[in-house]
Every structure is written in C-alpha cells, then in structure tokens.
C-alpha cells in the first residue's frame, strides 16, 4: 500500500533543471517515414545511458521550447529524478517540428504518435517500455495511441480528456453546438500557425512558417459543417474498448466537462488495470510545485485550483515506476477511484479550499451501489408518483448565465455559480428537506417525458442543492438536443405536440446534500451563453408523474484518509474570490422587460506578455469574447471570439490573430472568420472567409 496521506501547503519542492540526478537534451530530432522530423526535448535520469529506463512521451502542439516550457521544466526534472524519462514532442506542424497540420487528431498526427513510441523504445537510454501522459490535448493523444495497442506502450496517464470526441469534447455536447468550439478554434489557429525558432531549425524557418500559413483554413467553419456524429468525430474516438491493453491512470476535475470519461473508461475497459483521481478542480492537473525559488502567489504551473489539490508528480512517478520499471510499490493497491466529496460548490469559497473530504470506491462501478429515485411531480420531488400534470415553459434565452461555461478554465469567473436566479426562470422541482446527509457519487440520470411545439428543441437540466435560505448550489447538469434523443448520427425532428420519453446523464459529481437542504431539479430550454439557441422560440411541456431522476449514492463506510499528499490553503490570500453570487457578472442588460438585451464581454484585446528567460523570448497573448442575445429571440444571438499570439524571437516579432463571428437565422448559421499574421509589422498572411451553413437540426 501507499503511505498514509499528509497535508501540505505547497507540496514537495520542485526539482531543479541542474539537479545532478537529471540530464536535459534541449532538442533532438525524431524521423518520420515520410521524411518529416519532429522536434523533441528530453529529460532523463543522469545514468540512463548505462541504466536504460522507462520513458514517458508527452505529445502536444503546444511548443515545447517556449509556450509550455514553464510546465515541462517542472514535470521533466521531477520524473527524471524519480528514475523515469520524459520526452516532450511537438506534433508535426507545431513548435519546431517540420510538416503541416490541417486539423486536430488527423491520421498523420496519430500515425506519427505510433512512430514516436516505436522510436523511443529502440533508443539506448530506454528499456523498451514506454508510457504516454497528458492533459487535454495530450490526454486525447494518449487515449488515441492506446486504442491502437502499440506493443511498447505499457501505460498512460490521461488528465481532463475524453475518448469520445462528439459526446463530451469541446465542440458539441448532447448534440448542441458549444460556444467553446469557437473559442478553441481561434486559440488553435494562433498556436498551430506560430513560427518555429530560427535558432533551432536554422534559415529554413521562414519556409517552414510559410507552409503553416499556407495551410490556414477557416477552422470554426470547418468544424461547424459537422453538426452530427460523423466520421470527423469518430476518428480519434475509441470504438473498440477490447483492444485496450495498457494500464491507465485517469485524472479529472468536477468543474470540467470531460469528467465523465474517467468512470466511463473504467466501465468500458474493465480488463485494463486502472485508477482514477477526481478532484474539485477545473481543467487542470491536480497540483504541481512552484518553480525553484518562487515565493508568494502560486505560479500558473501550480494547478489544483480550486483546492484542495494533490501533490501529483510523486504519485505519478510511482505509477510509472510500477508499469515501466516493474517496481511492486503498491500504487495500484486499494480503492480504484478516489473522488473529493464537495460539501459546497468550489466557487462558493474560492480562494479558500472547497469544503469536503476525499472518499473512495473499491471498484467502479461501486459494488451494490444504491440509487435514490425521485419522481418529478407538480413542483415537487417525491419517492412515488402523483397523478400526471403538465408544466409549460416558454424558452428564455437569458437562462444559463449562472453556469457560464461548459467547463471552467481556471478563471474563477468561469466557475459555476449560485443558481437561484436561473432557477426562477425555469421549471423547478424540489424535494422535502432531507432528514439526513445524502452523498452522491457518479452520474445522475434524468428520465423525462416532454412535449414541444417546435421540431428542434433542447433540454438543459440542472441538479442543485437548495439551502433553507433559498440559495441554490450547482451540483451537476445535462444538456440534450432532443433531435438527438435516439442517435447522435441520425438526428430526427420532433413531432410537435407528441410526448417523448428521453434520458439524459449528468456530469459525474461527488457531493454531499446536507441534512435540512432540498434536492432540486431545474429545467429550461436555453443554456446561454454556452450552447447555441434553437432555431425558433420553443414552448416546452414536461409531464410530471412520468418523469424522474435517479441519484447514485456513495458506498457506505468509504475511506476518507487518502494515500497521497494533499495540498491545502494554497490559494488563500493570493487569488480573488469567484463571482459566485453574481449571476450576471460581466453582463450588461438593456431594453424593456420581455425584450431585454444581454451582452457579456470578457477578456481583453491587450496582450499579456511573458518572458521566457531560458530562450530569451518574449511571448504575448490575448483573448476577447462577446456574447449577445435578446431574451425573447433565439436568432438575435451573436458570438464573437478573438485570440492573438505574438513571438519575439532573436529580435524578430511574429504576430497572429484569429477572430470569428457567428450569427444565425432559423435555417442557417452565418459565419465570418478572419486570420492575420505579421512579421516585424509586415502582413504575411491575411485571410477572410464568410459562410452560410445550413443548420442540421441544431
């Protein structure tokens, strides 16, 4: 077994790059079969040439030399000092690697990953055992490689990612178009089209950059053309879980929309050795140490926000030593899943740690898990059904601001907030006050009977905890485009007035409903500014007595002393509170009641600047979003997103800017997308696209 838990303020000190246990190779080249070379940075134990070791690959488009160097400089030395190598690879067409990338996760990118695994296993400093690690994009890369079962790949660490790209990625959720697709598209453009470093690739850098710029395409428009589950989303998703044959450690955060993947992988690949760690965090690692010599406000690399965090790298190193070195260290003993039970929403107390405790399950699903079923009656949640009634709801496009993002980026303003303002505009169903605490662990299941007066309709369902004072805490949510009720690949319109029985599964949650509180289900048709509105204003009818919710209970007698070191109080006194009780934070409202205009702006057009002392570079970045909607008109919606990146390298400045504007009619999406790149102020690429795209039941 692992040692018992310890509570720490900042974790173990970071291992320095010049630690004598560590050897760093700043750049090496990995040849691909088509002649393209991928650039990589290598961290090894100092004695790896005489004692080959297991090596972990992190395969990303996020520029190992500058953009993500701050993070690699923490993880690489930590793993190397623990006896494990880390190979940080720029995927083709990114960073200092050659070639061109057109879109995410295409066949050349995935084929390259298999080549990199095989190449690594052949190196003199590798013992032939390879792992893959990553968060977000890196998680996808590891899962996609594991699905192909290359013989050298023994284990992966997958943080904040998914093996099902259409089901719960950043593009669509429940068949609904996400605003996050626009945001990620613009960010993707300015990252992937950045220049290589002339000091690494030499005078060919201009030609390599030119190839990248020539390949620019309107990525938001391209993704927007695939509104249902099709080959675009199937590629890069796992379809045959039986092929998986490696060990897996899943990391997830309850403020992240990817959270469902951890438990789903355990359910669908029970033959693989697996562990899961699910905390109160956003889209972040559980916790990294600050860089050597850092004091005061936790560095951006710190992660584990909101707290409490976990001192992650020592735990990860033990996992790698087990699967790449064969060390019998007990890392796989004990419960397979640890989750942080939230006694209050993370944003309610931030920057203080989230109240709660770690709980565990010996298996997943838990053995003999109990479920609490409650029926949606006329405004109430009860153990048994009352005579059916009908509750009607006219879509209000201003519902959703209290859940302002499909996942939280780490910015407290993106965390889910107190819900009573949105609840007041929705259909709500409350239980009686609970006589005892109820601990939820897993995905709630909503079984609803609904009618609509329009052929395209959405359901946004929220599970909340209501306090005696009427405040409403977010716990979980689910969204479904009802045309996708049977099949994401073949959506079919609703027959107006017909009743449909539909099932929605909420986000994984680990939460205590306190004695004296009430369980609430809140239902609306709109979720703005997260999902795009339906083509027409909808009147939705829910049939009570025939609708229910099923809540998975945490196992009895769960362990509360975790076998890892927890990080407490790390952000207290350093970060600003989240706007938990401000539903309309950043929103301006104008116009008469019933026709009010809501405008949300966030970010800035002014770049934040970061020095990279190790390379002498200066990086700049900015993002700005604007979301506009009138409460009574779904086709008043407008989303705008702009991202910029700049690179000051060896006295030369390269800038990239990407911007998209999306509007709609009842029948079409209206896209306006731009991309601009400059070199020392001179324009080197200027592209502008407009597209009128038919709505495909979205």
From TrEMBL:
Domain Xaa-Pro dipeptidyl-peptidase C-terminal: 317-569
Molecular function GO labels: dipeptidyl-peptidase activity
Pfam families referenced in this protein's UniProt entry, alphabetically: Peptidase_S15, PepX_C
SMART domains reported for this sequence: PepX_C (SM00939)
Superkingdom of origin: Bacteria
Annotated keywords: Hydrolase
Entry-linked SUPFAM superfamilies: alpha/beta-Hydrolases, Galactose-binding domain-like
The keyword Hydrolase appears for this protein: yes
Protein name, UniProt field: CocE/NonD family hydrolase
Organism: Gluconacetobacter tumulicola
